[in-house]
Amino acid sequence: MIETDNESGSYMSRIQKKKSVKDKKKRNADPEKVGDAGLSGPKPAASSVSSAPRTDKAAVEARPGEPNFFQRGMEFLREVKVELKKVTWPTRKQTTGTTIVVIIFVFVVAAFLGLFDYSLSKLVQVVLT
């Protein structure tokens, strides 16, 4: 069971706050997008040379403000660690009891299906012979 921290708000609200901060940084870093967001005057006319998107790998990887693959992976692992600390883990007694119930249930279902299969096979033999 996952518990939430009432003082700092829920996990989803923290994610939404992070996203809004990232959006603001992106808008401030890219002046062309500011015109799209309606925060300044009309978007300046782009020349044919500057409107072509850069497709080289270095330009894609070197975007300022965006974390790279390894930074995103490390952030994900940090968040996983925080969330796992919030989990209420079952005790050894609860785990053992639940495991025994599951094993017994599996044997009961197996016996039922075996009996059902045996009776249907005998019925088919009687009908065919």
Strand tally:
0
Oligomeric state as shown:
single chain
N-to-C CA distance: 58 Å
Q: How many domains is the backbone divided into?
A: 2
Give start-end ranges of low-pLDDT stretches: 33-38
Structure class: mainly alpha
Residue share in helices?
Answer: 55-70%
Mean pLDDT: 75
User: How much strand content do the residues show?
Assistant: under 5%
For the biggest sheet, the summary is: none
Q: How would the global form be characterised?
A: elongated
- How much is the radius of gyration in Å? 30 Å
Order of helices and strands: HHHHH
Count of separate DSSP helical elements: 5
Short description:
The chain is an all-alpha fold.
Question: Describe it for me?
Answer:
By secondary structure, the chain is mainly alpha-helical. It folds into two domains: about 1-40 and about 65-90, no CATH class; about 90-129. Helix content is about 65%, strand content about 0%. The protein contains five helices and no strands. It has helices spanning about 10-30, 30-35, 55-60, 70-85, 90-129. Helix 1 crosses helix 2. The protein is elongated, with a radius of gyration of 30 Å.
